[in-house]
Amino acid sequence: MGSLQLDDFVAGWVGGAAAVLVGHPLDTVKTRLQAGQGYGSTFNCVLTVYRNECIAGFFKGMSFPLVCIAVYNSVVFGVFSNTQRLISQYRYGNPNQPPALTDLALASMTTGAFSVGIGGPVDLVKIRLQMQTQTFLAANLDLKDRTTGFSVQTVYRGPVHCLGSILREEGFAGLYRGSSAMLLRDIPGYCFYFIPYTFLCGWITPEGCLSPSPFSVWMAGGVAGAISWGTATPMDVVKSRLQADGVYLNKYRGVIDCISQSYQNEGLKVFFRGLTVNAVRGFPMSAAMFLGYELSLKALREQTETNP
């Protein structure tokens, strides 16, 4: 049983779409906080976005991730599940053998490495669209609003225009700006995602049940998401800054330079900016993702058994 199972990819797509719908507004707040444009606090950021852009501001750039992040999560869940089964087949001779901690860690790290291939460009476009209409100090720009001393400039007309602009101005490599930081975030990040989920789900599920209940999946997924996003925050800050760089200015030469400049200018606390938003956002987003994944996977497998 070494064959690729496609139902995990389909179920991952459903889970990814559910996660985007639930988590995008807080993701917008997180991105703007981490990019370092003087919002001060999460509450002030929410108020500023609402005052300047109304409710629509929180959903800026959502159409692109709604399509692409669903595909991205399809790859994440498909790679993780199939890698885990492959490891179990190799080590125990049975792909359905419950995985050990080392098996889960290896499958999670493999998933983290694969995820950047699709997730890097998707995240880059999403962040560029989220960042482009916030205000920047006039000293950093040529245009100035005389009444406020701040400038606002729209660079991208939408995700397709943004993608084309990046390719034209920065080349194919520009699509992977911040990818090294994303690797450093996602390889350990997925370990703190799938390992807690697997063990929490097993712990919450009553003994004798063949599969976890929707509540067990929802709770375990939410807690795993909060843990994963909380621990990934420092490198997520670096990734967000590198990917936001280039909308108006080019400040950073790479990961080390971004870390160095951020620390010198704002201190150690800058790497924990957005921690609260990440942890709070991680719970409902991941709960929706795992619930969508498990329910759709169950439905797909039941249909397969009914119609072999």
Summarize the structure.
69% of the residues lie in helices and 1% in strands. It has helices at 7-34, 42-53, 63-92, 101-131, 159-170, 179-204, 214-244, 255-266, 275-306, and strands spanning 136-137, 150-151.
CATH superfamily: Mitochondrial carrier domain
Our estimate of the beta-strand percent is under 5%
Principal-axes shape call: globular
Percent of residues in helices: 55-70%
What quaternary form is this? single chain
Mean model confidence by pLDDT: 83
**Domains counted in the coordinates: how many?**
1
Radius of gyration, taken over Cα atoms and rounded to an integer in Å: 20 Å
Could you say which structural class the secondary elements and strand pairing correspond to? mainly alpha
Q: Give the termini distance in whole angstroms.
A: 17 Å
Q: Which regions have little confidence, pLDDT < 50, spanning 5+ residues?
A: 134-152
Q: In total, how many beta strands?
A: 2
Order of helices and strands: HHHHEEHHHHH
Tally of contiguous helical segments: 9
